[in-house]
Every structure is written in C-alpha cells, then in structure tokens.
Amino acid sequence: MIQEKENILLIVLVSCVATIGGFLFGFDSGVINGTVDGLQAAFNSDSAGTGFNVSSMLLGCAVGAFMAGRLADKFGRRPLLMAAAAFFIVSAWGSGVATGSMEFVIYRVLGGLAVGAASVMAPAYISEIAPARFRGTLTTIQQFAIIFGLFSAFVSNYLLADFAGASTAEFWMGYQAWRWMFWIELIPATLFLVALFAIPESPRYLVMSGRKEEAEKVLGNLYGHNTSAQKVSEIEDSLAQDHHQPKLSDVLDKTTKKIRPIVWVGIGLATFQQLVGINVVFYYGAVLWQAAGFSEADALMNNVISGGVSIGAVFITMFLIDKLGRKPFLMIGSLGMAVTLGTMVYVFANSGIDANGDLTLGDQGIVALVAALAYVFFFNLSWGPVMWVMLGEMFPNQIRGSGLAIAGFAQWIANFLITWSFPVLLTGIGLAGAYGFYTLGALVSVVFIAMFVHETKGKELEDM
Q1: Which residue, of 91, 255, 317, 452, is most buried by count of CB atoms within 10 Å of its CB?
Q2: Helix (H, G, I), strand (E, B) or coil at 435
Q3: What pTM, to 2 d.p., does this model score?
Q4: What would the DSSP string read from start to end of 342-406?
C-alpha cells in the first residue's frame, strides 16, 4: 500500500476555523473587564450586584459546556459550533443595548451558553481532526486564539475608552463607549458562523453515528484515501463492543458502577485551572489595578501588556508541547504561579492605605506588576493551553462527549464561584487575602499533577 501524505494545509485551515470559537471565548470573557464602571453607573449596582453582572455569563458557560458535550454526540460537532456562533451574535448585540441588570444578565447568559459550548467543542473537534504527532500543537492554537481574543478585547476596550475619554463617556451615535465594547464582537462572531459552513464534520463523530462512508471521505481528504478505511476500523474498534451511541452513563465503570477515574482526573484538571484565580485577572484586571492605585487608563494599559505576555507564553507552549509533553508544562506552571502569587500576597499585605481607603503600593507597585505579569506568563505557558489540550484528547472515544460535558461543567462552575466571590473577598479580606487563597490552589495543584495526571503526548485517540 502506498503511504499518502496528510493534507496538512487542510488540517490546519479546518482547525483554525474551529479556533475562531476560542477567539470569541476569549473576547467575550475579556470584554467585560473594561465595562465594569459603565455597568455600575448604568444599573446602579453594589459590589455583589456588579459581581453577579460580571459573573452571570459563567452560569451560561457551565450549562453550555455540559449540554454541548452531550448534544454534540447526538447532532454533531459542527452544528453545535454553529449554534454557538449564533448565540455569540445575539449576546454581543443584546449586552450592548441592555437597559437594566436583568436584561443584561439574560444576554450575558446566552453568551455564556456559546462560550461554554465553544470551550469544550473547539478543542474536541481539533483533537478529532488532527494527527497525534502534532495534535497538541494544533489544540494549543485554541488557547492562543482565546488569549488573542482576550488581548483584542483589552485593546478594543482601551482604545474605545481612550477615544471617548472614559468607558462611561459617550462615544458614537449617542451611545457610551462601554456599549460599543460589546458590539465590536459582532464582527468576529459573524465571521465564525459563515466560516463553519466550509469545514467538515468530525470523522470520529461520523463513525460513532454509523455514517462510515462520510467518515471515510473526510478522513481521505485529511489523511489520504489509502488509509481512510483502516482508520475507520480503528475508530470502530475503540467504541463500545455493542456499538451503541455514546451516552452519559458510559462514564460509569461497568464493573464497579462508579465514575471512571479518568473522569475525576478531568474534573480535577478543570477545577484547578480556576482555583489559581486566573480569571480574576482577566475579568477584574482594571478593577484590581485601580484598587492598587493605578488610574483607569493605566489599568487598562496593564491589561493590554498582560495580554501580550500571555500570547508570548502560549507561543512557547505551542512549539514545544508535542516535544516535551503535557505533564512537565503543568508542573512548571503550578510552581511558577505559586511563587508569583505568593509575591503578590506579600506586596499587598505590606501596602499602605490612603485617606480614601485605597491601597498605596509605593515602590512595591512595580514588584506587584512584574509578579502579576510573570503569573500570567506561567499560567498561559501551562494550565491555560494544556488543560484544554488534555481534556480534548484524554478521554476514550466512547466517553469523549460525556467526559468533556462533566469536566467542562466543573470548570465553569469553579470559574463562576471564583469570579463572583472576588468583589466580596476584595471588600472583606482585601487583595492579600484573596490572592492567598489562589496561592494555596497553585500549591495543591502540584500534588494533584504528581499523583494523578498521566502523559498523553503522541498517543492516538483510539489508544486512550
């Protein structure tokens, strides 16, 4: 048999279309960062109310992630991504036109459904399309897209606030700048929806659905027609012996009737990614730095710098993850975050308080800023991309949808709790106390990695 070459260009292009979902995931998550002052002024909300306005999207994310994994097993990966794109469009428009907290929360929850679905289905789709030897690199592009989406939201927020004079000032057509921050997202969301019509369905989903001829055609276009039939057989052999459609109960061990250990590891990975507090930086960066004594303009610029550092870190991982593996990156990241978070705790704990009750960091301000940037670097070198890579590839074919649904749900619930609690912690125990909790999360994650995480580098999905 003549060995055909993979159509690498097509594989990369198809993967890049899927990662637009990651870009929107990042943009939708980061855009809220610059709108907090506008939301407080427009809806007259207190700290708890503002925390819920900001974190409400995450409830939708949890539901979206859980439903997407199951619905994708029933209807396909591509239709779910299309539905997510449509929800991104509706949410972006509605969040900008909202006139009250309840209306705003409804639109943000719709956006959350889209983010949750995209967060689990984009890496799963890429994992099911990409060859094992560079699957990690292609899936890491998803994290690059997330960070680039965050970075784009930060830059967009900064420029809009700068042009208008403040996020609460009128910008164009009589609308305040913070509303335009949401509407900018309409451009990439529409592009995502249109581009999805040009990519194929996941061949592994097609095999699981009994559509073997379609699967062979897709695999032939991606990997070469001489090997497509053999690949279909390998996928079939990896499914349940009775070849039933994947279902949620497949996550239970048939002998013990308990949840399979691999699912608990997925839940652990998803939860620890949030317990280190990264989304406090993403969602409340401007608030955090203003609390530390920076002006709104300087705080928004710090977000832009943080986004740039994040992109650089993801690039390193993208080029090395298929050489070094997944577990080493997780370990390096956890240790690095523990040190940098601990540094921030020390600075915040030893800062002064001015007459208005605000922190005054003095000469230690630059130490806190460098530590924060180093923390963001270590996260995006490790847990940021690697958690999504592992969730997309670690589950066997039969339970990938269900495993992703459960792990994704856990990830977004943890995200919601961390994000919602931050304004309350900030008011109650201050920055030092809040960051002390995140430091503990980073330290415990080191033990989790050492004891429970196994390497998946270079393994075919059928061998998981």
Answers
A1: 91
A2: helix
A3: 0.72
A4: HHHHHHHHT-EE-TTS-EE-GGGHHHHHHHHHHHHHHHHHTHHHHHHHHHHHSS-GGGHHHHHHH
Which among 324, 395, 376 has a CA at the least distance from the CA of 143?
376
**Amino acid, res. 24:** L
Return d(Cα 72, Cα 186) in angstroms, integer: 25
Asked whether the beta carbons of 420 and 274 are under 8 A apart, the reply is no
| CA–centroid distance for 90 within its chain | 20
Token output for 419: 């994000």
Residue whose token pair is 């995450």: 58
- Tell me the β-bridge partners of 226: none
List, for residues 122-155, the tens digit of each pLDDT value.
Answer: 888 887 777 767 677 777 777 788 878 877 887 8
DSSP string, 173-230: TTEEHHHHHHHTTHHHHHHHHHHHTTSPPPHHHHHHTT-HHHHHHHHHHHH-HHHHHH
Report the Cα–Cα distance between both ends of the chain, in Å, rounded: 27
Per DSSP, the three-state class of 292 is coil
DSSP 55-115: HHHHHHHHHHHHHHHHHHHHH-HHHHHHHHHHHHHHHHHHHHH--SHHHHHHHHHHHHHHH
Closest CA to 31 of 118, 155, 122: 155
Q: How confident is the model at residue 340 (pLDDT cuts 50, 70, 90)?
A: very high
- Say whether 260 sits in a helix, a strand or coil: coil
Structural tokens at position 193? 């929806």
Angle among Cα 219, 390, 238 to the nearest 5 degrees reads 45
SS3 244: coil
Token pair in block for residue 73: 């097993």
Instruction: Return the residue matching tokens 């974190």.
Output: 55
Q: Which residues contact 291 (CB under 8 A, 6 or more apart)?
A: 358, 359, 426, 431
Residue 142: per-residue pLDDT: 78
What the block records as the tokens of 194 is: 């249109």
> Cα separation of 128 and 131, whole Å?
8
- Which token pair is 104? 């705003």
Q: Name residue 359's beta-bridge partners.
A: 353
Instruction: Please answer whether residues 436 and 156 qualify as being in contact, where contact means their C-beta atoms are separated by less than 8 angstroms.
Output: no
User: How many Cα atoms sit within 13 Å of 290 on the Cβ side?
Assistant: 13
Q: What number is the average pLDDT over the span 320-343?
A: 90
Query: How many Cα atoms sit within 13 Å of 337 on the Cβ side?
Result: 35
Pairing, β 359-360 against β 352-353? antiparallel
Q: Could you give the CA distance from residue 106 to residue 94 in angstroms, rounded to a whole number?
A: 9
pLDDT at 246 over 70: no
